[in-house]
Every structure is written in C-alpha cells, then in structure tokens.
Amino acid sequence: MVPVLRNVLKAPCPLENENGCVTSAVEAGGTMIISIASGKGGTGKTTIATSLALAIGKVQFLDCDVEEPNAHIFLKPQIQERIAVGILVPRVDESRCTFCRKCAEVCEYNAIVVIKKKVLVFPDLCHGCGGCAYICPESAIAEIEKPIGVVERGRAGEIDFIHGVLNIGEPMAPPLIREVKKHIDYHDNCVIIDASPGTSCPVVEAVKGSDFCILVTEPTPFGLNDLGLAVAMLRKLAIPCGVVINCADIGDDEVMRYCDREGIPILMTIPWDRRIAAAYSTGIPLVEALPHYKSGFVDLYETLRKEVN
Amino acid sequence: MKQLTVISGKGGTGKTTLTAAIATLSRSHVLADCDVDAADLHLILEPAVEKCADFQGGKTALIDSDTCTQCDECIRRCRFDAIHHYTVDAIACEGCGVCARVCPQGAVTMQQHVSGQWFISRTRAGYMVHARLGIAEENSGKLVTLVRQQAKLIAERENKEIVIIDGPPGIGCPVIAAITGVDLLLAVAEPTLSGIHDLERVVGVAQHFNVPVMVCVNKYDINPLNTTTIEAFCAKNGLAVAGKIPYEKNVTRAMVHKKSIIEYPCGKATEEVTKLWEQVSQRLRNNKE
Fold first, then answer.
1. How confident is the model at residue A194 (pLDDT cuts 50, 70, 90)?
2. pLDDT beneath 50, residues of chain B
3. What is the pLDDT of residue A309?
4. How confident is the model at residue A20 (pLDDT cuts 50, 70, 90)?
C-alpha cells in the first residue's frame, strides 16, 4: 500500500528563494533545470525528455503535463508516495449570511452568485483567491479544500520521478503543476521538466524558473507556426532555448531557416524512423530501442551545461 | 444546427488535419478553431479576415509606487505569489483583485488588458472563427467560449447545419470550454500506449460532461495490436469507431502545400477519411435536437 498524505494548498506559489523570487536554479547550488516544451503537440517532447533523463542517469524527472502525463509509460517508475492536492474553495454558512452580495461582487470568476436568499458556489470556476472569505462582513465564508489531483513520486532506476495527475473534469492545471515543482531538490542536481503542448498558463507554469528550454518540433507548417509561438513565450519569460527537430526529413526546411534567422541553436535532429515510432507505440524509450542515440543525448546534456554556466 | 468538436487528449494525433479534411467534405458548416494558444487550421485554409476584434481577457493588478507604503498586506494576501518587491508579476497575476481590496492606501488598481484577438474570416471552406491568445496569457477557456459563440451566431444567420470545432489538446479548461454542450465529439487517437492512456482520460472528461463520443484511430497500422486495444476500449464503453486511417507519408506533403487531404489526395488515408465523414455526419443527423 502506498501511503496517502493530505496536502492542503493554502497558498499556491511557484518555486521561490528566500527573497520570494523565482529561482534560477544554477544560482541555487549547481542545480540545472532543463524543461522540454513544443507548442505543437505530438512532436516528441516525452521521447526527448525521457531519453535525456536515461542518458544522464542521476536526475530528477518532473512530468508537468498533468492533463495527459505520459512519461511514466516510458520510465516505469515504482511509485512510493502519493500526495493529494487541492485548492481552497468557499463554503457559505447560510445561517450567518445576510445575502449582502459582497462575495459575488468581489469574485472575478463568477464562482459565487447570490440569488435572492440563496448563495451558489461553482467550485470549477473558483481560482482559490480567497477574496470572498476576506470580504464577507459576517465571516460566513469558510474555505474548504477541493481535490484537483494527485502528485506521485517514485524511482525509476537512478531517476527520482515525480508527476502530477489532474482529476478528470477538473479545469485548472497550474496549481497542480506548482505542487509538482515544489519537489525540486536544489542541491547539485539536474532536473528535467516535461511540459504540456501549447503556450498558455500550464506551459508557462511548467517552464518558469528553468535555466534552459528545449523546444521539440517537426519541420512542417504546423510545427513551425507553433514553434514561433513557443519561442515568443520563452523570450517573454527570459528563458534561453534551443531546438530539437524530430522527424527531420518529413516536411520542408522552413524550421531550419527560421532557427537560422532567429539565432536559435539546433541541438539535435532525429529522422523519421519506423523503428522509433514502433518503440514509442509500445512505451520503449528511444535510447533503449536504439542505443546508439545515447551518446547524442549525453553530448546534448554537456552542451547545455556549458550553455547555462 | 449541430456542434461537433474534434479532440484528442494527446497532442499531435491529427485533429487539425482531420478538421481541415472534414471542412472540405462538409457542405453546410461554420468552422471554429478553438485551439486558441496554438491555432493551426488557418495554415491550411488561408482565411481572409473580415472582422478582427480584441479579446478583453482579464485584469492585472498595478501598484502605484508613489502611494504604496510597503505594508506588505498585498503580498500576504496574494495566493498566486504574484507580488515581489512591491511590483506585480503580470504573468503570475490571475486578476483576482484581492490585493486592490486589501491595500489600505488604495495604491493598487486593476487594469483590464487585451489578452488576444479573435477573427471572423472567409475561407475556401466557408466561414471560420479563430483567435490568437496573447503570449503567456490566461483565460483561454473564456476565449474558446467566445469563438464558439461567434461561430454559432454565424451558423444561425447563414442557416448552416454544423459548427465544426477544432479543439485543443489536454483535458483542462480550454478543452472543457470546447466540449460542453456540443452534440458530438470526434476523438482522434493514435495506437500508442500514450495515445490509449490519453484517449481514456479525454473520454472520461466527455462522460463527465455527458457528451457523446465517436473515435477515430489515426495511423492505425503503426501498431495494429494497440489499435485492437482501442477498439476493445470503445466497445466496452459503447463508443462507435468512426474510422481507422492508415499512416500515409503524403499527409505531411498536403500540409506543406496548404491543402487538406481531400484537396491533395493521400491514397487510402483520403478514402478512409471520406468514409469516416459519412459515419460522423450521419450520426449528427440522427442525433435529433
């Protein structure tokens, strides 16, 4: 049996140092955080992230694609710890409520509504800001925990594996991603973060605080378009990035030209190969199916170490 | 008027390729690209924008440093760790406004800001409503809802039969916004262990919101055994398999040429998508309002 711990998320916050700033990990004692993102989905983020982890060996691996986590399929960790994660949502004591509507006025997300002598709470719309409980003049609002998912931690060989699994029907991934990232060990460590596709809040939450971000793309118009969006996001966050072109021979050379124009390094190219697709389909990591790729990932890691320092 | 959303859970399984194909097969529809943070449908359909409008997503706090007395009350109350050194981190700020409420000096104001744009366009496959969420912006669910509403209005005005919605990957807020209240979901799955895992989760979300699902297995011949597993999963959950599309190298060529795989024939893949659309459109017609 795996012990289940309760963990009420009182103040969801990202990784921070004692000054309250998002930490640049290398400053925090030789730890390097590499995130893997893409813009477009299905380009091979998890393939690159898992193979990089296996090639380096002793790393922390964080699967921050909490909506559709897949890395466990490849790394097959032994889960040793499960931590339930929740956000705080309001519960109204109607015996104390005077239906003054102040809570509804303060809520920016329409998560609390007063209709005549009834207060309706919509937990799925609530961001857990605590504004309603703060404003209520009758102290009629308590905050209770609503579960949104679970963080699981375990080992896969030398790899310290952590991922988050968002509950089905739960809309908000970022608070769970923040909980996954609280497990980062800042003592002379290498951390690999697998992000979700896209460029909006869950991806920002996952890559924030990274020392370097590897963008995995494919050389197609969709791949290029979404790569451009991902690069813009990383520039806004001031995170340096490089590109891995997967299925490098399937489309055109526009991605190459784009990287050239923008001065973005191409870290690795991987051709389309039915053996890679077949291994992926059965949950076998690239470096296990085709071991000659391993040295490429070790070199990639060394390149990033130099780049970051 | 019916609404169909193409989803997948896992990214990159072929949602947009399939949506573009359906858009060139269907005769009476309006398109809605609801993958608002990485929209791609416009790359195939080359829309001519007729209307462009700003999306007022949310608010961001702004601290007036002249009025601020550095009492730290806002920092203590912010649940999103968005205030450092008496300045607001606009990316972390969720616009809840608690800081503005608690500030004893009234030094914090909430600023409405533009978080993206949305468009109504003409394409060779009919009207399309699409959007672009600003970089690192929030409220993608709200923008998805807006795009869907606009597409629905056009469909009603133009007397079109279907709103075809290209959905985002994942199972979170924009996905929920793209699927609630639609008549049918078409879930595109690939026959990989990741694909199966992600399909199961997105079908769970569909069931949670009571939306019927049909499944399409893309590149089914990459792993026939996994395809069988998907079919068994569908049978067990009472989901119809609308079609199985073989891997076809030319599909990428079609994309490079800015054509749907109906306009740029891709052998068996094109044939199977055509059959799939017959199944799906029939199901939509039978689905009485």
1. very high
2. none
3. 82
4. very low
Total beta-carbon pairs less than 8 A apart between chain A and chain B: 205
Residue A57, number of CB atoms within 10 A of its CB: 12
What ipTM is given for this predicted complex? 0.94
Asked whether the predicted pLDDT for residue A86 surpasses 60, the reply is yes
Half-sphere exposure of B60 (CA within 13 A, CB side): 18
CB A192 within 8 A of CB A49: yes
- Quick check: B101 and A106 CB within 8 A? yes
CA distance A146 to A161: 25
Given a cut of 60, is residue A19 above it in pLDDT?
no
Contacts of residue A281 in chain B, CB cutoff 8 Å?
A: 190-193, 195, 222-223, 226
Q: How far is CA A53 from CA A63, A191, A241, A300, B5, in A?
A: 12, 9, 18, 11, 36
Q: Provide the pLDDT for residue B135.
A: 86
Using DSSP's 3-state secondary structure scheme, residue A208 falls into coil
Backbone angles phi, psi at B275, to 5 degrees: -65, -40
Non-local CB neighbours of B39 within 8 Å, separated by 6+ positions: B33, B130, B131, B132
> Quick check: A22 and A16 in contact, CB under 8 A?
yes
What distance in Å separates the CA atoms of residue A146 and residue A128, rounded to the nearest whole number?
A: 10
- Chain B residues within an 8 Å CB radius of A106: 97-98, 101
Residues of B in contact with A21 (CB under 8 A): 84
| A5 pLDDT higher than 70 | no
Answer whether B197 sits within 8 Å of A222, measured CB to CB.
no
Residue ranges of A 39-68 with Cβ closer than 8 A to chain B: 39-43, 46, 65, 67-68
- How many angstroms separate the Cα of A258 from the Cα of each of A94, A224, A228, A232? 60, 8, 9, 13
Any idea which of A15-24, A196-205, A217-226, B198-207 has the lowest mean pLDDT? A15-24
Indicate if the pLDDT at residue A166 is higher than 50.
yes
Mean pLDDT of chain A: 91
The conformational region for residue B239 under phi > 0 = left, psi -120 to 50 = alpha, else beta, is beta
Of B79, B171, B255, the CB nearest to A221: B255
- Is residue B122 within 8 A of residue B154, CB to CB? The reply is no
In tens, the pLDDT along A255-267 reads 999 999 999 999 9
Q: B37 contacts in A (CB within 8 Å)?
A: 198-200, 229
Instruction: Tell me what percent of the residues of chain A surpass a pLDDT of 70.
Output: 91
Residue A33 pairs in a beta bridge with: A191
DSSP string, B197-248: HHHHHHHHHHHHTT--EEEEEETGGG-HHHHHHHHHHHHHTT-EEEEEE---
Contact B280, B242 (CB under 8 A): yes
Tell me the whole-structure pTM to 2 decimals: 0.92
What does each C-alpha distance from A159 to A93, A156, B46, B275 come to in angstroms? Answer: 47, 5, 46, 46
* Contact across the interface for A21 and B84, Cβ inside 8 Å: yes
Amino acid identity for residue B87 in this structure: T
Which of A109, A125, A200 to mutate: most B Cβ within 10 Å?
Answer: A200
Tens-digit pLDDT profile for residues B220-248: 999 999 999 999 999 999 999 999 999 99
**Cβ under 8 Å to A: B residues 203-262:** 204-205, 208-209, 222-223, 226, 249, 252, 255-256, 258
